[in-house]
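Lab notebook, bench 4. The sequencing result for the construct came back, and we need a structural model before the next group meeting so we can plan mutations. Quick request posted to the team channel:

Model the 3D structure of this chain.
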Amino acid sequence: MFHAVRRRLGFALLPALLLAGGCSMHGPTSTFEELGDDANTKGFGSLYPPDNREPGEFTFGVGDEVLVDVSNAPEFKGPYVIRPDGKIFVHILGDIDAAGLTASQIRQKFENKLSVFLRPGFSVSVGEGQIVSRSYYVFAHNPSVGGLLGRKVPHTGDLTVFEVWVNMGAPSTLLDDEHHIKVITPDPRNPIVRVVNVKEMAVTGRTGANVQVKPNDIVYVPTTFWGRLNELAQGVSLPFTGLLRISNTIVSADRAVRVISGDDVGGAYGYYGP
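Done. Here's the predicted structure in C-alpha cell form:
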C-alpha cells in the first residue's frame, strides 16, 4: 500500500520537477555589459537609425518607396525603392543615400547632385510612396497551448494603443489581462514601459492613457491569474499529448500496412475487430 501511494505521488510530482529543471537549465539572461561588442546600441537594431531629424519626423528605411519630382527634368522623376544597402539608384546621378534620412535630407542630396547638370532655378520635391519599413509588434498569450503569439504589423501612421487593441480583435477572455497592457519602446539600456488600462477606456471612455504607438514599439497583453494557471496546465499536459499523438500515428500506420498486405482482412472492408 505504502509503495503504491509513493509511486502515485512520484508520478504526480514528476511534471513539476521537470518544469523546475527546465527553468533552471537556462540560467539568468545576459546583461548589457556582459554582451560586450554584441550588445545592440541602435535602439531596436535598426540598420539605418534616424540621424539629425526633428522629433516625429519620418525617416525612410530599406524597401520604402521614395517619390521624386524635378521641375523641367522628367528624366529624374520616379518612384525609387531603397535597396538593402540603404541607397537608391538614379539615372545619370548614380547612387544616393536614402535609408535613415528624412524627405528634406534626401531632397538636399538630389539638389547637390543636380546642380552639376541643371541650371539654377530648378526645384526638387520628395515624398513618401509605399512604406514597408515601419512596423510595430503585438504579443499575446496563446490560450490553447500557452506561450506567446507574436505578430509584426505595418505602422500606417497615427496609431494609439486602443486602436491596436481593437485591431487585435480585442481579446476579452478570463485569460487576458486588459487592465495592464504594456506599450514598450525598446532601447538597449533604458526601455520605456507604459502600463495602460484599455478595459477602463472601453467601459468609461477615459482616454488619458491612450498613448501613441510608434514604429518598433511592442504592445504586450499579459495573462491574468487564470491565464497563468492555464499555461501551467497546458505546459504539463502538452508533452504527454504529443506522445499520445505520435503513438496513435504509429498504430494507424501499422494498421494501414496490414490492410495493404492483406494481413487484416476485416480492415480492408472498413471494420476492425477486437
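Strands lie at 65-70, 78-81, 87-90, 94-97, 124-128, 135-141, 148-154, 181-185, 192-196, 218-221.
Will bring this to the meeting.
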